[in-house]
Design goal:
Number of strands: 15
Strand content: 25-35%
Structural class: alpha+beta
Mean pLDDT: 88
Order of helices and strands: EEEHHEEEEEEHHHEEHHEEHEE
Number of helices: 8
Low-confidence stretches: 319-331
Helix content: 25-40%
Length: 364
């Protein structure tokens, strides 16, 4: 991934901020943050430093943008003596799979270009700025980036920059300008766009901080396994679970996986297999489950295939981990763990069969 970020304050002390940091030692997952604090001067700067620290802390713990916003918002509301607020975006990007999860806290929509197509405004879920309402919640959205996709985050100091006639640069002009320079690398793109904004504003005084982050994704596509190393067939019965875990366990030991990873994989297998037995076939119907496995020092890929009724466990309503245990919906926690511990999970219905595949890339 290529990144370039810039912040030009309107006054000596700015209230905007950007941040980007890796979530793991192997630098395979990265987070981008951009934010705009209301107000100016020292109080806004202090509020900004606190928010920036809290966001990074929460993302390093949970890697969940919506949950991070929820917790940071609670903490900011507790000590918000100056009634300030923050608009922000958090993006969490898996550099190997291209999976990007993001949440919005009242910020303006960034620009995105897919596979060289013209920039467009990225779809955002509605989100309340941080520091206003203690109970406000935010929603995660997910997209998948491919090699060559581009993202441009910015604060409203850019699109709302004003000239001497009190005219704003505007979203339409921002989009048009971005597409004129779409072929440039991040640093040249940002500098060219800012130069165009400066030409528009002329001698007018800068009225707001101008902050931006340009990202070009250069990741690798998701590995597609055509030939699996092992193929197993089991009866779709919970009584068969121990047999499946034992046979898969032999493969995991041969691949040299650590105990922690093996425990996670076992939990994932149990959740998926039990779901097939209970919901795809039902207790009394019975049927077969074909399990295909590819496990080596670089990756673990396992595919589950059954001929039961159409059943996609991935559409289960996402568990709200910010809610109290008595407030959460029944079910969904197992699938939550599957999604959390695996790098990618896919489902498709083909020729009367449910096919669920999990991917885990081994980072040593």
């Amino acid at each position: 991934v290529k990144i370039y970020a810039s912040m030009v304050a309107a006054k000596e002390i700015g209230g905007d901020f950007y941040d980007f940091f890796y979530l793991d030692e192997n630098e395979s997952k990265i987070v981008f943050v951009i934010a705009d604090v209301s107000g100016k001067g020292v109080p806004a700067a202090l509020f900004m430093v606190i928010a920036k620290t809290l966001i990074k802390q929460q993302m390093l713990i949970h890697n969940n943008p919506a949950q991070a916003f929820f917790r940071v918002n609670e903490l900011l509301c507790e000590e918000n003596k100056h009634d300030m607020f923050i608009t922000s975006l958090i993006f969490s990007l898996d550099l190997i799979t291209g999976k990007m999860v993001y949440a919005n806290a009242g910020h303006n929509a960034p620009l995105i270009s897919f596979s060289g197509t013209p920039y467009e405004f990225l779809k955002l879920a509605k989100g309340v700025p941080l520091g206003i309402f203690p109970a406000s919640k935010h929603k995660n959205l997910t997209i998948y980036l491919k090699n060559g996709d581009k993202l441009y985050l910015y604060t409203d100091g850019i699109n709302e920059a004003m000239n001497k006639y009190d005219e704003q640069f505007g979203n339409a002009r921002l989009l048009k300008t971005a597409n004129e320079y779409i072929s440039l690398n991040p640093i040249d793109f940002d500098m060219a766009l800012r130069h165009r904004v400066a030409e528009f504003t002329g001698n007018a005084m800068q009225s707001d901080d101008m902050t931006s982050v340009a990202v070009h994704y250069k990741g690798t596509p998701l590995i597609k396994v055509k030939t699996f190393d092992k193929n197993f067939v089991f009866n779709a019965s919970e009584d068969e679970l121990s047999n499946m875990l034992e046979r898969v366990g032999v493969c995991l030991n041969e691949a040299g996986y650590g105990e922690h990873l093996k425990i996670q994989i076992n939990v994932v297998i149990e959740e998926i297999f039990v779901n097939i037995a209970r919901y795809a076939y039902g207790k009394d119907k019975g049927g077969k489950v074909t399990a295909r496995l590819s496990a080596d020092k670089n990756k673990f890929v396992m595919q589950f295939e059954d001929e039961g009724t159409p059943f996609n466990p991935l559409v289960y309503k996402e568990v709200d981990m910010t809610a109290g245990i008595h407030e959460r919906n029944i079910g969904g926690l197992g699938i939550h763990l599957v999604k959390k511990w695996m790098d990618e999970v896919t489902y498709e219905r083909l020729i009367g069969k449910n096919i669920l595949t999990v991917y885990k890339f081994i980072r040593r």
